[in-house]
Amino acid sequence: MDLNQVTLPVSNMEESTDFYRRMGFLQIVDTPHYARFECPEGNSTFSLSLESEDFTSRTVIYFENSTLDTLVANLKEKGFAFDQEPTDMPYLWREAVLHDPSGNKIKLYWAGNNRLNPPWRVERSE
What we know:
2,3-Dihydroxybiphenyl 1,2-Dioxygenase, domain 1; 4-stranded mixed beta sheet
């Protein structure tokens, strides 16, 4: 199996699609209630779904970038506000944190080999 996409809830589609396009994602589907984006690298996509009721998002979406500090600096120049600057984490990832206009948490990170092969990796199935 391969992961197709993750869908995030949003309260304002226009504001949200603008946010993600400004981050550098390519919008490939555009409807009043649904939008989909391609990531700048790789084959991953993610989508947004307009919610008509109030919600609190506990979703965290991760985007990996090998030049994390440069990416964060460029996004800050575009006016993006970060809750956490790039920080080395105890689980061997370097992460920066921000939120989209609907409150979805975004972690920009670089993990290198530790993303799939941390020192504590286990391999279990069934």
